[in-house]
Amino acid sequence: TQVYNFSSGPAMLPVDVLRRAQHDLCDWNGLGTSVMEISHRSKEFIQVAIDAEQDFRDLLQIPSNYKVLFCHGGGRGQFAGIPLNLLGDKKTADYIDGGYWAHSAVKEAHKYLTPTVFDAKVTVDGLRAIKPMSEWQVSDNSAYLHYCPNETIDGIAIHETPDFGDTVVTADFSSTILSQPLDVSRFGAIYAGAQKNIGPAGLTLVIVREDLLGKAHKSCPSIIDYTVLNDNDSMFNTPPTFAWYLSGLVFKWLKEQGGVAAMDKINQEKADLLYGVIDNSDFYRNDVAPANRSRMNVPFQLADSALDKLFLEESFAAGLHALKGHRVVGGMRASIYNAMPLEGVKALTDFMVNFERRHG
Ligand code: PLP
């Protein structure tokens, strides 16, 4: 059976990339050893690092006054990294609470400052939504504004592009980076854990405007200090070399697919197909307002939750893996990142229609 993995992360990777990595595991670049086993200071690995950064920059058209850092610590590491690097001599920062992950960032921020929290969650006609950016309140004395454009668990997305003048906007792009074009110049700092749309877990990418460097709190651990990382080409300590290498292969694969513009188109097609089947049925439901629906993570409920177990068993047997919803939401969730082909979503929707026919 062809397997499609709908995991929210660590998530599916492009099969071409995995095949290449499989080959490279025993003999990389004719060295007779794998990329995992060579020094991060070797000229071979440094070339991997340089190429990966350049490809990532090309894909997102990152302006030259932004630094790209390859870090440890995941998305949660940056919940601390953002305040420790960007608070400066301010006492507060604005946090937009739009769901589970934005809220988790608020909780971590409390260790370093008193965040000014704006609850953007709202229910409109029984559907979960996010207040438009024009209603977000930004305080004068704040060091930065933080939000999460794609809530992986809630299946809620903020599709607007921020426009807050001089305010330093920071954002957690862990589950949406590289899925569509992004105007980096609207942000002070962007971060993303790799394990959803980029590569293996263990690597976290940070894009930071260079004038924001040099403000880290004196207690900031060196390994998440943006200035230290930048001064050392992200090799202050041993970086997650294999994850970096594999992410580099994903960037090359993305370029071959036509870059983020091509991904944007296919991701829209995938999401339209899946939401279409959910909306055309009384058997399945998604309770997010259409304007805030995530294109990456699609939670859905069965009208009769007693069928959940059977749905999961049968879908797994049909090669459709990891559809169980997050424990805080329940029901189902299909994560359909860049590496999920349209055929995978078709296989899922065919299964859903068939399951409904048999059990509806
Ligand atoms: N932010 C978002 C949007 C996420 O989806 C996740 C993980 O699922 C995290 C942060 C936490 O990432 P990590 O486990 O890499 O710390």
Automatic annotation (TrEMBL):
Pfam families: Aminotran_5. Pathway: Amino-acid biosynthesis; L-serine biosynthesis; L-serine from 3-phospho-D-glycerate: step 2/3; Cofactor biosynthesis; pyridoxine 5'-phosphate biosynthesis; pyridoxine 5'-phosphate from D-erythrose 4-phosphate: step 3/5. Keywords: Amino-acid biosynthesis, Aminotransferase, Cytoplasm, Pyridoxal phosphate, Pyridoxine biosynthesis, Serine biosynthesis, Transferase. L-glutamate binds at S8, R41. InterPro entries: Aminotrans_V_dom, Aminotrans_V_PyrdxlP_BS, Pser_aminoTfrase, PyrdxlP-dep_Trfase, PyrdxlP-dep_Trfase_major, PyrdxlP-dep_Trfase_small. It catalyses: 4-(phosphooxy)-L-threonine + 2-oxoglutarate = (R)-3-hydroxy-2-oxo-4-phosphooxybutanoate + L-glutamate; O-phospho-L-serine + 2-oxoglutarate = 3-phosphooxypyruvate + L-glutamate. Residues 3-348 form the Aminotransferase class V domain. Catalyzes the reversible conversion of 3-phosphohydroxypyruvate to phosphoserine and of 3-hydroxy-2-oxo-4-phosphonooxybutanoate to phosphohydroxythreonine. Belongs to the class-V pyridoxal-phosphate-dependent aminotransferase family. SerC subfamily. HAMAP family: SerC_aminotrans_5. This is Phosphoserine aminotransferase.
